[in-house]
Design a protein that fits this description.
heterodimer; A: 347 residues; alpha/beta; Rossmann fold; 5-stranded mixed sheet; B: 441 residues; 6-stranded mixed sheet; 25 strands; globular
Amino acid sequence: MSKKAIIYVNQFFGQLGGEDTAGVGPSIHEGLIGPAMAYNAQLKDCDVTHTIICGDNYMGSNPEDAVAQILGFLENLEFDIFIAGPAFNAGRYGVACGTICKAVKDRFGVPVITSMNQENPGMEMFRKDIIIMKGGNIASKMRKDLAAVVKVANKMLAGEQVGPAAEEGYFPTGRRHQVFIEEDATTRFMRMLHARIAGEEFVSELIVPKLDRVPIAAPVKDLKQAKVALLTTGGIVPVDNPDRIQSASATRWGKYDITGMERLESGVFKTIHAGFDPAAANADPNVIMPIDVLRAMEKEGVFGSLHQYFYSTVGTGTTEKEASRMAKEILPLLQADNVDACIMVST
Amino acid sequence: MKLEIGNFYVNEIAFGDELSFKDGVLTINKEEALAMVKEDDRITEAELYIVKPGDEVRLCPVKEAIEPRVRLDGKGLFPGYTSPLRQSGNGVLHALKNCSVLVVGRHWGGFQDGLIDMSGPGQKHTYFGGLNNIVLVADTNEEFERYEQQKKNDALRRAGHKLAEFIGQCVKELTPEDTDVYETTPITKRSAEVNALPALVAVLQPQSQMEALGYNDLVYGWDMNKYLPTLMSPQEILDGALVSGSFMPCSSKWSTYDFQNYPILRALMDEDGKDYNFLGVIMANLNVAMDQKERAIQFIVQTATELGADFALVTEEGYGNPDADYVGAIAALETAGIKVVGVANECTGRDGASQPLVTLDEKIHAMVSTGNVSELIELPPMKVVLGELEALGRDGNSGGWEGDEVLGPSVRPDGSIIMEDNGLFCGDMTVGWSHKTMKDF
C-alpha cells in the first residue's frame, strides 16, 4: 500500500496570489497544488493526499493560531511524511516552514522535511529541530531543491537512516555521531600530517567553531553621573506581549517605558520565556528585571539615573546570529539616548 | 636503537600435547599453560579457550590483551613488571601475529573492562574481534575489590602477560616468515639531509589519572601517576616498556597489545627521513589536578621546543577530564609554534548534541576523530559467552547499566545487549586502527 504525504506551501506557491494575499489564514485542500504535483510525481510509493496553504504574514503574525489550525486539519488524517517548501531565501516563508514542520513533528512524530537557502533566517532558527535541505536563493531553483528534498524524503519513507549532513545535503542539526569508513585512523593521520608539513589544504575531522569573543568593556568613569539601562534575555514584557516576542528561538525584542515606575508590578509585566518555570518571575517580575533595586540605588545616588526604557528578548534557543543582530539594532538607540552603562540580566 | 621483530603469522590455534608453532598452527598444551597460570595462588579458577573471527562468541568482561612474543636474548617481555628491568627497544624478538592473549573475568567485571564480539555486527567494534585469540577466563581471591567498580585486576592482568610470554617461547628457535626492523640514529648523529627536514615529535598521553596506585599504565613497571613527561624511543614502546592499566572507560583505553603494535608510531617510523625527521616520543601522562596538568604540559612543550620540533602528534588514552590535558597540550604546542595533528575520540552524548571534548580551543587545527564514546549500540545474542555477560550491567561497566526507564537493562533475558560504545574493549582504537570517524548529522 502506498504511503501518504502532506505538503505545506505559502500563498504564492499555493497559487492564491502574491503579497496581497500574504495575510490569508490556513486552508487545506485535497489533492495537488503547486509544488505538491512535483512531489507527488517524484516521491517513491507515496501519494500526496493534501496541500496546506497559509499566507506568510498570517503565519508570521499569528503563529500560535496558524499552527493550531493546521494541527487541527491534520488531526484525523493519515500521513507518513510532512513536507514544507522549498522556501529558498524567502524569510517569512522559511520561518513558516520551520515553525509548522517542528510543530507537526512534535505533535505527530512523523518525519518532516523542508528546504531553505543558507541566508534564510528560518535556517538558523530551526536547523537543530528538523532536517532542512540546503536550497537555492530564488524560486528558479525549484526543480533542483525539490529533487533534493525528495531524495531524503524517500529515505525517510523507506525507514532508512538519513546519512551525515554533508553527504545528504542538509544543514547540520548540531549532532555528531560516529560512522564507519574505509580508511583507518593511521592513514588519515598520516595524510593530515603530510598536508600540515607541506602547507597544503586538509580537513580536520573536528572543526572547533570560532568563538566570537567580545572584549570586556572599560569601567564606567563616573558611576555617580552615569545613565544606566537594563536589558534582559529573560523575556520580561508587558502582559500582552505587544511586540510578539517568541518564547524560544527569539528573533524579536521590545523596548518598554518605565517612567514613574518604582517596580515592575505582577499582572502588568510577566515573562514569556519558555526555558524556565515562570511562576516566580510572573509573581514578581523584578526578580529578573530588578527595577525595584535599581530605583533604590538611584535614590541612594549609587549611579546617576536609570534609563527610562528597558529592553527585553528571550535567550532560550536563540541563535548567536539572531542575538547579535538584535544587539546591533538596540545599540544605536542606547547611544542616541546617551546611555553610559548597561546591565545585561540573563536567566 | 635497533629493534627487530620476527613475525610468525597464526592462522589457527589448537590445543594439543605440546606447545608449538608449525605451518601457521599454534598448538598449546592447555594443562601445562593453566598450571603456569595457577602458579599465582591468587588465581582460584582458570580455563583456556580458543576463539577465532566468525565464532558466535561474546567475551565479557575483558580486562587485557597481549601479543605473545619472545625475546631471543631470553630476557622478559615487560621489564619492571613481570621481569627484572632491562633496556627496551634494542635486540631481536619473535612475535605471534594475528593473535592475542585475552584475559576475561570468570564472573566479575568493573568500570574499566570491555566486551568483544567475534562475529556479527559487534565484531567490527573491536580490533580483537578480527584476531585469533587465546582466552584465559579466570577468577581470583582478590576479595578487597570483588564488588568494587574500580578494579586493579592485578592477578588477572599479570596472568595474561605471563601467559603471553609462556606461549611466545614456542617460536624462539624458529625462523620468522618476515622481519620488521625499527632502527633509529641518535638525534644529533643524523645526516645533514635528515636534520634539514621538518622535525616531528609524538606526544603520547597514556592513562594515569587514578591517584591510588596499581590502576594506571606502567612505564618500566613504574606507575605513571607518579611520573613526568620524558623522551623515549618509539622502539621502547613496541618492546614492552609500556603496560596497560586498569582505569578509564574501556573503549578509550590502550591495551598492552596496542602499545606493542602501535600503528601510528610504526607508520611514523616507516616514513621517517622522507619529509620529516622523527625525533622520538615525548611520553607524557594524564593528570587530575590542574597544576599537575599544567606541569606535565610545560614539560611536553619544553622538551619539544628544546628538541627543535616543528610538528607534533598528540594523542590521549581517555576522554572527559583528560581532554583538558590533551587540548591543553595541543594549544600550548601550537602557541610555541609547533603544529599539531591530534588523534582522539569524542563524547557527543547518545543524542550526539554534546560538546565533543570537555574543553575546546581554537588552536585545534587538525584532528582525527575515532569515535563517540556514548554512541548507543545494540547487539544480538551470541551462542557462547565467555566470562559472565551479567557483568556488563551489574558491575558498573562504563558502557552498561542495570536498568534504564527507556532502554531497559543492558543485558536482556535473550542474551541480546544494548550498551554505550564506552564498554567495547579498546573500541575507539585511537592508536590508529579505528575505522570510525565523527560526522555532523
